[in-house]
Amino acid sequence: MRARRPISRSGKQRGNALLELALFSTALFLLLFGVADFARIFHSSEIVSGAARAGAQFGLVSAADSADLAGMKQAALNNAPAGAGMQANAERYCLCPTTGKRVSCTETCETGAPNGYIHVTTEMPFETLIRWPGIPGSQKLTGSAILRVY
Question: Strand ranges (DSSP E) for 3-149?
Answer without folding.
Answer: 87-95, 102-103, 115-127, 138-148
